[in-house]
Amino acid sequence: MRIAFVSDAAYPWHVGGLELVESIEARELAKEHELHFFSFRWPGMREEFTSNGIRYHTFHQITREKFYRHGRRSIREAMVFGLGMFRLFSYRFDVVYANEFPVLHLPLIKLYCMLTGAKLVLDVVEVWDRDYWVDYLGPITGGLASAYASAFITSGDSYVANSTLTADGLERMGIPRSRIHVFSPIIDDRKMRAIRARQTDTIIFSGRLIKEKRVDKLIDVVRSVSRGVKGLRVLIIGEGPEEAGIRRQIAAMGLGNIVEIRKFYSERQKDNLYRAMKGAKMLLHMSEREGLGIIALESLALGTPVVLPSYSPIPEEVRRMCVVEDEAALPAKVIEILRARNKARYISDTETLKNFYISNVNKFYSKLFKELGLIR
Predict the structure, then answer these.
(1) Does domain 2-185+357-371 sit in CATH 3.40.50.2000?
(2) Helix count (H) and strand count (E) of the chain?
(3) CA triple 251-253-256, angle to 5 deg
(4) Which of 124, 157, 296, 318 could cross-link with 306 by S-S, CB 3.0 to 4.6 Å?
(5) 43 preceded by a cis bond (ω within 30 of 0)
(6) Which residues belong to CATH 3.40.50.2000 in the chain?
C-alpha cells in the first residue's frame, strides 16, 4: 500500500514525544508498505530524500524560533503548512495518516481524500475543549479556533488516539467509539533491557522547555528538597522558549551547583539519554499539559520511577504505574525515594508496559487497514 504521513515536524530533526512516535510508526510501516512523509524542512533536512525506507517531501525552511511565537505555536507557520498540503495532489495514496495539529491543514487533506478515494486516519494526542483554546489563543481567536477544530477533526475515517483519555475526548466531540483506536508504540523493549548505567541520587527531567511543562514548578520542588538532601543533583534535558527564564530562576534560587541543563541528545546519542534516565533515582514530571507522557513510559521501562503531581493530565494507564502526590506533598515524597535503597518498589503494574511495545506496529495497522476495507 501507499501511505502518506503528514506532520509539520519530523523526528529527529525536531525532538518531541509525538514526533518520536510518528518516526517509530513510519519506520515500522515502511518495512511492509511504500511510505511518504510530508513535513516542514527542518535544519539538516533536504527537500527530497529517503531515510530508513521513508521518502521525505519537505517544504518551507523552519526553525524552532519560527515554529513558536511568544511560547505558543505560530499561527502564521500553521497557515503555511496548511497551504503546503497542495503537494499531496501530485501523488496517489491509499491512506493519508495525518497529525491533527496544527488543524489548519485538515481541509485540504480531506478534499484530497474525497477526490482520490484515499482513507483519512487522524493521529490524535490531545483533545482541546473550547476553554483550553481560549486560554491558549485568547477569547476571539481561541473561540474561532475551537469551532474550526471541531468542524474538521471530526472529518476522519478513523482515529488513532494515544491514550484512553484522548479517546474519551474524541468521543465527546461526537466521534463514534468504533472509529477510535488506542495505540502508542514508543518502547523498544529490547533496547531498554540492554541499557546499563551507574546508579546516582539524581532527579531527571527531559522535554521541551515550554510553559506547559512547568519546569518552574520542578525547580520549586528541587529548592525544597535541597534543604534536606546533601549531594543532590538535578539534570534537565531539553530546549525551548522558556530556557532563559528557567536559568534565571535557578540562579535566583542559588541552585546553580545542583541543577544542570543540557540540550537534547541527537538520535545517534539517544542511548546517552537512556543511560542518564536509568541511572537516575527518579523522573520528576510536573507538566500540566500532556497527551500520554512518553518520557514517563521510557523511564518506567528503564526501571526508574516517575513522580507526578496529582494535577497531571497523564492518562490512568500510565498514572497507575507512577508515584502520584499532591503538589504540596511532593518534596517529602521525593526525599523518601532519594533515600530508598530499592527504587524499583516505587513502580507499579509493569505488565501494562507491554501495551506500548513497538513490535506491535504492523500488527495493529494491518487490523486497522482491514477495517477500512483496504486489505483483505
Answers:
(1) yes
(2) 15, 16
(3) 45
(4) 296
(5) no
(6) 2-185+357-371, 189-355
Sequence letter at residue 271: D
Average pLDDT of the segment spanning 271-289: 96
Query: What is the third-level CATH fold of 189-355?
Result: Rossmann fold (3.40.50)
Helix (H, G, I), strand (E, B), or coil: what is residue 28?
helix
Q: What share of the chain is helix, strand, coil (3-state, %, to 5)?
A: 45, 20, 35
Q: Are strands 68-69 and 72-73 parallel, antiparallel or unpaired?
A: antiparallel
The string over 68-93, giving b where at least 16 C-beta atoms fall within 10 Å of a residue's C-beta and e elsewhere, is beeeebbeebbebbbebbebbeebeb
What whole-number distance in Å separates Cα of residue 352 and Cα of residue 296?
A: 13
Beta bridge partners of 306: 283
Give tens-digit pLDDT for 138-193.
899 999 999 999 999 999 999 999 888 899 999 999 999 999 999 988 888 889 99
CB 1 within 8 A of CB 374: yes
* pLDDT at position 179: 97
| Residue 161 φ/ψ, nearest 5 degrees | -95, 145
Give the three cell numbers for residue 157: 475515517
Calculate the average pLDDT of the chain: 94
Q: DSSP alpha helices (H): ranges in the chain?
A: 17-29, 64-67, 75-83, 106-116, 130-137, 139-153, 164-172, 189-194, 215-226, 243-252, 270-279, 294-301, 316-319, 330-339, 361-371
Going by DSSP bridges, is the β-strand pair 54-61/48-51 parallel, antiparallel, or unpaired?
Answer: antiparallel
The letter for the amino acid at 258 is I
Cell readout for 373 is: 476495507
In the 3-class helix/strand/coil scheme, how is 163-232 assigned residue by residue?
CHHHHHHHHHCCCCHHHEEECCCCECHHHHHHCCCCCCCEEEEECCCCHHHCHHHHHHHHHHHHCCCCCC
